[in-house]
């Protein structure tokens, strides 16, 4: 199994777990403090970091591999990959180098 395949499997498993968690889904559908509470719980559960991306938008970043990161917002989950990364959290400072590998809506 390649690292990219392993990252895809890990992303799919974690996305399914998050989507299936009715407590998190209820909080993510809320506003303000509810959303932040859910994102903080998700970050803690998966060893990620709840990050303010600006403008009051928060995203949990979870390292899948050194070159793959999962981003969880109140609306969606995405997996990003960049072979040149040395730290998964650099993915958002190098937008010209990343490609969204997967996206799953939390709005359905």
What is the topological layout?
Elements lengths: L2 H18 L1 H7 L4 H14 L2 E6 L2 E9 L2 E5 L3 E6 L17 E7 L3
Antiparallel strand pairs: 1-2, 2-3, 3-4, 4-5
Helix pairs in contact: 2-3
Please, could you describe this protein's structure?
This protein has 108 residues and is α+β, with helices and mostly antiparallel strands. It has one domain (3-105). The chain is 36% helix and 31% strand. The protein has a five-stranded antiparallel β-sheet. Strand 1 (49-54) and strand 2 (57-65) form a beta hairpin. Helix 2 (22-28) crosses helix 3 (33-46). The radius of gyration is 13 Å and the shape is globular. It starts with a helix and ends with a strand. The model has no long low-confidence stretch (mean pLDDT 86).
């Amino acid at each position: 199994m390649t690292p990219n395949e392993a990252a895809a499997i890990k992303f799919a498993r974690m996305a399914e777990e998050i989507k299936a968690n009715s407590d998190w889904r209820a909080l993510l559908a809320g506003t303000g403090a509810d959303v932040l509470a859910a994102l903080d719980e998700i970050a803690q559960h998966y060893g990620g970091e709840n990050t303010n991306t600006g403008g009051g938008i928060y995203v949990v970043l979870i390292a899948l591999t050194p070159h793959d990161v999962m981003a969880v917002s109140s609306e969606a989950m995405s997996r990003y990959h960049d072979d040149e990364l040395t730290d998964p959290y650099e993915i958002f400072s190098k937008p010209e180098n990343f490609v969204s590998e997967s996206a799953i809506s939390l709005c359905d």
